[in-house]
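JOB MANIFEST
job_type = single_chain_structure
chain_count = 1
residues = 275
[input]
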Amino acid sequence: MSLAPPLAPGERLAQGYTVLSHVGRGRLLDVYEVWSEARDCGCVAKLAIPELRGDERGREGLVREGELLQTLTHPHLVRAYETIAEPDPIIILELLSGATLQYVIDNATRRMAAMPIVYLGMHLCSAIGYLHGQGVLHLDLKPGNVVVGNDGRTRVIDLSLAGPPRHTRGGRGTPLYMAPEQVNAGWLDRPTDVWGIGMLLYEAAAGRPPFEYDRDDPPQLRGRVDSVRRYRRLPEPLAAAIDACLEPEPDRRPTIAALAELMRDLHRAHVARVR
């Protein structure tokens, strides 16, 4: 089945929004940069690809994500300005500068230094800790869902799988980055996102994830992953924290609060050394 082409620059996406460019198309969604007449600035629009716009479940999911984002205000979470429900759901988001963490890792000439990893950890803990305080889990933390801004600020994007703690039938998430309890039918709670933070910090440090995904033999279910120390020399507390986030048993992973405090301690120690 051939897909309908994306809208061209200058075309009207919705009332008050004109297409500036087509950012990309995924399996389910189109993303556009658009001009907002009301705000007199560029924004991002996220909507279903044309072939899926009649899918009721997808429509409800987009509206739910947009409405959730509009209730959240945090410097390390992307902001949603508006959720258009009809005729086709569209989420209008702030336009972020910078690049995804995936792009940063893939195009780096050298691996990320220890202190930028600490800053990344601080920002992620801040954002995810806030989400958890609102009763929401992210459940899809991966390098493509983190934007490293030109201002140095990290922002978490894409809350399409976000929701309260719950049981899962398994398989909800991005396969490579799912926690063991996401791969299997299990209870998803705050430690599930701690695993996600660990995966992000591991890949930022090592320049690669801790394993390659195998659908027939998911590596998350084989026991402990290789320590980040195998690929990278890091300050011992930082390496130990990353490894602890990837404990197979959820109750053995650190809390967000404990992880955030460790990151702050590492930051304070660094500042004291360079003074």
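[summary]
The radius of gyration is 19 Å.
Helices lie at 56-70, 101-107, 114-133, 180-183, 190-206, 236-245, 256-274.
exit_status = 0
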